[in-house]
Amino acid sequence: MKAVALTHYLPVEDPEAFLDVDLPTPAPLDQDLLVAVKAVSVNPVDTKIRGPKEQVEDPPRVLGFDASGVVEAVGPEVTLFKPGDEVYYAGDITRAGSNAEFQRVDERIVGHKPTTLSFAEAAALPLTTITAYEAFFERLGIDRDGADKGQSLLIIGAGGGVGSIGIQLAKAAGLEVIATASRDATTRWVKELGADHVVNHREPMVEQVRALGFEHVDHIAIFNDMRHWDAAVELIRPQGGIVSIDDATLPMPMAGMKTKAASLHWEFMFTRAMFKTPDMIEQHRLLSYVAGEVDAGRIRTTLNTVLSPINAENMRKAHALIETGTAKGKVVLETFV
Questions:
Q1: Residue in 226, 271, 264 with CA at minimum distance from that of residue 243
Q2: Domains within the chain, CATH numbers bracketed
């Protein structure tokens, strides 16, 4: 099968950063699906893993953590899917990735693709959807079905992939969304997706949020980086909650959190698959729920840029775009040729 892989971890501008290779087609085992991949998207986790380091891969390593495609074959214990089903999923960081013509993936982390979306549109959604859904409804405990209607949510870094779907999920749950964006293009984007208010995270946020009439906010999601930790602690309401997807490499003073009896949560959407947690199937269920919301017209794809075909050259272009830190929505590659 054709695949885009790497043997060395190199800067994205290096022509050897990705290679077009031929690899054996895997066979599905146990609860695995073998998916014929039609489209993939690129996320910041891809660029972090590909970043320069000494390690050498032999055989070549296939990255990729978002895909849509068609079930080619199923393992003997599969019960949720059959060959010919159209699917979308974010995969498992411990297994070979989606940047290949065929991928083996556990059915418990796969959803039926929204019928109203193309493969490219669907591939933009899984990883960011799972991340935002788990962050809001599982980590912060917000009610998905509207019991917390009217509560406030500050999404820091709302213009990226996670924030773009997060705004929509939060609005569907009835929350008042304060989104942060730092450029005119991303400001327009988050407003288009439904944000009620927009503030600039490159300027003092506490003053901006309070100028909107919020002394504190009920929930905060940090979807870019922990530079905004002090502002988040200042803004969170007593007994509120903050969720982050960033690495904890910067100082995070906790005195303010203790005084407010506020909670801190980490979201990492690969946890369930990595550790084969007993509730692993929840990712199948949430992807199926979101597919229904998309088909009902309540959630839209966050696709913004499409490159074709899926090859090493376009993969380098996609990684370079993500590494700028200015991409809005999602970057997708489609079709092996």
A1: 264
A2: 2-125+271-334 (3.90.180.10), 131-266 (3.40.50.720)
What does pTM read for this prediction? Answer: 0.94
Token reading at 242: 């903050």
Question: How much is the pLDDT for 233?
Answer: 98
d(CA 92, CA 63): 10
Q: How far apart are CA 328 and CA 337, in angstroms?
A: 27
| CA gap 272, 283 in Å, rounded | 8
Q: What is the mean pLDDT of the chain?
A: 96
Contact 190, 179 (CB under 8 A): yes
List the structure tokens of 43: 């996320």
Say if residues 167 and 204 touch (Cβ distance below 8 Å).
Answer: no
Assign residue 248 a region (left: φ > 0; alpha: ψ between -120 and 50; beta: otherwise).
Answer: beta
Contact (Cβ atoms closer than 8 angstroms) between residue 174 and residue 199: no
Query: Both tokens of residue 27?
Result: 């066979």
Structure-derived torsion over alpha carbons of residues 46, 48, 54, 57, reported in degrees to the nearest 10: -20
Measuring CA to CA, which residue among 139, 163, 190 is closest to residue 199? 190
Strand duo 67-74 + 86-89: pairing: antiparallel
Instruction: Answer for the pair 36, 69: CB distance below 8 angstroms, yes or no.
Output: yes
Q: Which token pair is 6?
A: 């790497």
Q: What is the pLDDT of residue 167?
A: 97
